[in-house]
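Now for a concrete sample entry.
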Amino acid sequence: MSDLKSTQIRHKIQELSETIKDHQFKYYVLDDPAITDAEFDKLWKELLSLEAKYPQYKLADSPTSDVGGGFATHFQQHDHIEKMMSLDNVFDNDELDTWFDRIEKTGAKNTWLCEVKVDGLAINLLYEKGKLTRALTRGNGTTGEDVTLNIKTIKSVPTELKGNNLPDLLEVRGEVFFPIKAFDDLNDSLEEAGKARFANPRNAAAGSLRQKDPKVSANRPLDVVVHGIGAANGISFDQQSAAYDLLKGWGLPTSNRFKVVKSRKEVVAFIQEYEKHRHDVEHEIDGVVIKVNEISVQNDLGFTSRAPKWAIAFKYPPEEVTTKLLDIKVSVGRTGRVTPFAFMEPVKVAGSTVTNATLHNQEEIIRKGILIGDTVLIRKAGDVIPEVLGPVIDKRTGSEKAFVMPTLCPDCGSKLRAITQGDVDIRCPNNQSCPAQLVERLFYIGSRSALDIDVLGYEAAAALLADGLVKDEGDLFSLTE
């Protein structure tokens, strides 16, 4: 291998690792993903492929060796008694067959437990002598954030287990989620208050659980479903399904959306059934988890550094629908970046109604060949962020028209320009007095990602500026009431 090629490979692995860690931080800590699940999975698979092909260049702190994405700052941290693993993913039947083949080559004789994959926040509940003593987020798999007080506000989580012969110590693994109907209601109330909407129920669950004030969590209708056991003293079971029976008997909230099957064909049928009816489920699901049901076989198969070899998550593909592109309008962000947005006829996709989506920049619009008036194909990749994939050419009538990026800022009239040579984004250079930038910066300061000022929503930020009470961010700290 030439020195140039090896340098390029090392650089690419370094770049991918840093990019993935940044997105993990935004997803796990800020609860504010910047890319779709599908885009993240693409980066992840590219890094895995390079590390497998060139193991000598794998970084010691590679994200593929870790489980989670770090910590928020206002929660105490504690170690899990038994490491809390993640799951590897497959995305089609060929990849699933490869996983099946790998297990069957060991000579294992087993059944399969299939269950819906709840799109929520992983949680670890610690019970000692039947009493709930601690609740931790997954964190990095070894250490998690202590959210015990907030978990205790969730009605479905028992603070004391039922029954006799309870284990002296028990770690229970599960997911905190936001029911879809409750999520829609919460977003409506946030919008009415001029606050930022949550992108999806998973973000709402994470943001609600990570509140500094447990009273806020108590006012959010969070729920939990448990699906596994970590460390445990004084109990034994020989099948995963038997563990579920124990958990249910102790009064813990288990799911009834699982099935033990004997063949690959039955596994695929389960996957297809829930893909067809995924929006009939009360919470968001993004796939199906398949586990070896027999504990002895699980023990024989073991783990990688981040995930069990005896379990896999089959991720559903993004949903795609068509709708009419009514207009393209631009918005000026807090850094001056001018972003075009697609405004569309309302359409239901991945369980929620979509009316607009970012088009990123003029170059992206040209690349995709999108015209105003087109019938466009959209998806919510990973059931998170709406994305316009492109036009349906056959539906064109000839009345469509091209979008032209404005040359002047729609808010302050400044001439728009690229800040650096070759930049695909154009920006408003009027950082000091552009109203749109000021409102966005004030709104950001009040957001969960910054100072978390509950009363400083978008409408409040706009009103402060319109009334002349503030002229820049610094004026916020001079307000007396």
Q: What stands out?
A: The chain has a mean pLDDT of 87. Residues 65 and 305 are 6 Å apart (CA to CA). The chain is about 30% helix and 25% strand.
